[in-house]
Amino acid sequence: MRRIIVLLIVLVGYKALAQENRNLQKNEDIKQLVSSKDSILNKKLDSIKFQFHEEVSLIDSLWINELINSPLNDTLRYSIEDDEVIESELVELPTKLLKERLAELDSKTPFNVEYNPQLEQIIKSYLQKRKPVFSVIMERARLYFPMFEEHLDKYKIPLELKYLAIVESALKPTARSRVGATGLWQFMYQTGILYNLNVSSYVDERSDPIRATEAACKYLSTLYKIYNDWDLVLAAYNSGPGNVNKAIRRSGGSTNFWNIRNYLPRETAGYVPAFYATMYIFKYANDHNIKARENTITRFETDTVHIKRQLTFEQIHETLNVDIEILKFLNPQYKLDIIPYIKGKNYVLRLPIKHMGNFVSNEKLIYAYVDTQESLREKTLPKYVEVNDQITHKVRRGDYLGKIANKYKVSVSNIKRWNNLKSNNVRIGQRIKIYTKNVAVASNSSTKSKVKELPKGDFNTYVVKSGDSLWTIAQKYANVSVSNIKEWNNIWSVKSLKPGTKLKIFSK
């Protein structure tokens, strides 16, 4: 029996090795699969049977919209400032009851959750001023907390530190502070680099939920080795060990947070209490009638795949019909909605699990299609630029985006993408990131797109159905490409493809 088992293991290993060798033949396979551009764009591929799983339609669109597009994403300021602290009497929470609950938290956690009047006022201020946002935050927590807990447990860090990400970013992976801290765990650039979170013109790994969480765990572990006290770890995470060490010296050597609080920066002084208040509210949410909204799906089942050439979110949508907003939500580290392919770097695409089979089964064909599409692209995509090629422009009086773009020989559209600007407005003192080295851009002001005339002759009308993509529609007709459909119907955004849309398909 043992020999049989060993033989089976060898056979399985050999099969896996053979499969890997086959994967390395991508270029040769594509050459055989695609003899010309028309074989992808203009020929109906009867052998390819895309099956879009009906389960994907179960994704609750309202939930997605709340998670991605909620105004809280841009307006939420989570921490309570000193001038916002309310009088204790405004919230019905007896001091005696609060003391009992804090004592219970203190007994069950490694934190010094001691009652004091300051903490009482902060907790009640959160209940008074931040209560409306907690249902949204608790909904996001359903997605991120299981992953947080897995990593925290790996590093033997108290699981309660998952609440730290709420204080930092309100669980928004693309959150960015006024000083440049980015992501769920709000890493500054230098600290992120120290923990292998790379930043380029395409990618900001500080916004990658998994990689940033891993980095945060390493950083928290390092801080605990220094202070051996989780309260001081929290303070150091916010303001840096230097400020905490200064506060300890100025207090006469005390290592109790509440004794050194007045010697810490103002933001940090409210930071640890904000953490305690958050932990309290999550533990006693039901007692304060705070509940996350009920949704059909509370957590995405996802998987990742290493990409083997550059892909845009639009191309993924066209071939797999994955909503672009979902791609952005699951892959927030890609700043320009482009996954670059760089030799020596392993960039991954995260997809809903129901789409993963479609991608893997048709990977070679998707790459071949993308290669052909790229050859027809009129404007080149920005080249990959490391952050070392980045400069920062401080907006001065009289500056506007067009003027800044002309100064650095880049386009306005790229400046907006690099800085996540939703309008052309800039303010004096604002810092603008500019990537200057080998960035291939096309100025919108210098060129005007030519309007192409529609072909003459008969055409069919196709009504878009649920699950359709531009690619699957093109395959229904002989000698019709995705580019044809876009030109004939003036579709330049994949968001225009909605069920019920009528498309003109001309005979060729």
Structural features, described:
This protein is mainly alpha-helical. It folds into 4 domains: 63-288, Lysozyme; 300-377, no CATH class; 388-435, Roll (Membrane-bound Lytic Murein Transglycosylase D, Chain A), CATH 3.10.350; 459-506, LysM domain (Membrane-bound Lytic Murein Transglycosylase D, Chain A, Roll). 46% of the residues lie in helices and 7% in strands. The chain contains 24 helices and 8 strands. The protein has helices spanning 2-23, 26-33, 38-41, 61-69, 72-75, 95-108, 117-129, 131-154, 164-169, 189-194, 209-227, 230-239, 241-250, 257-260, 266-269, 271-283, 313-320, 324-330, 353-361, 363-375, 401-408, 412-418, 470-474, 482-489; strands spanning 302-306, 311-312, 338-339, 348-352, 390-394, 431-435, 459-463, 502-506. The chain has a two-stranded antiparallel ribbon. The protein has a two-stranded antiparallel ribbon with strand order 2-3. Strands 5-6 form a two-stranded antiparallel sheet. The radius of gyration is 27 Å and the shape is elongated.
